[in-house]
Specification:
alpha+beta; single chain; two-stranded antiparallel sheet; 152 residues
């Protein structure tokens, strides 16, 4: 009788597993619970960015950034300068997973090789001519010479 009980136990376990498999997965991020989450820069950062400012303290200035209006100082070893437009200077971007940078290049300037794990980069040339490119994880090189108005 012990063999029969063991067989029934294993059969019941298999049926339970097969019954649970078709249940839907809830592994996606839930819909946002609020329209925006302006960063409270005086609080410490958490896994998903800074905590939100109370809605009563949010102003129009939290959604405004004018840091790209000035050219950067390119008198350095790379002959380039990066002006970041991220949550630290533009609190309205908090928890959105986006940022934007302005990069100024002097003639012959370079942007040192870098990577963006789980992120993307797009470049637009406003003035001049610029060689841009990237290397894939399979070591394939893609590049293009851009002029004003081009994006890569």
């Amino acid at each position: 009788m012990s063999a029969m009980a063991s067989l029934l136990f294993h059969l019941l376990c298999c049926l339970t597993v097969f019954w649970l498999l078709p249940l839907p997965s809830h592994s996606a991020d839930p819909d946002p619970l609020q329209d925006f989450c302006v960063a409270n820069l005086s609080a410490s950062i958490s896994v998903n960015g800074f905590p939100c400012k109370p809605a009563s303290e949010v102003t129009s200035d939290d959604f405004f950034f004018d840091g790209f209006t000035q050219e950067g100082n390119t008198t350095n070893a790379f002959a380039s300068f990066l002006t970041p437009g991220n949550v630290l200077s533009f609190p309205g971007l908090n928890t959105l997973g986006i940022s934007m940078n302005r990069v100024d290049f002097a003639p012959g300037g370079i942007n040192p090789p870098h990577s963006h794990p789980r992120a993307s980069e797009v470049g637009v040339v406003i003035e001049g001519k610029l060689l841009v490119g990237f290397v894939t994880t399979n070591n394939v090189y893609y590049s293009k010479v851009l002029t004003a108005g081009h994006m890569f």
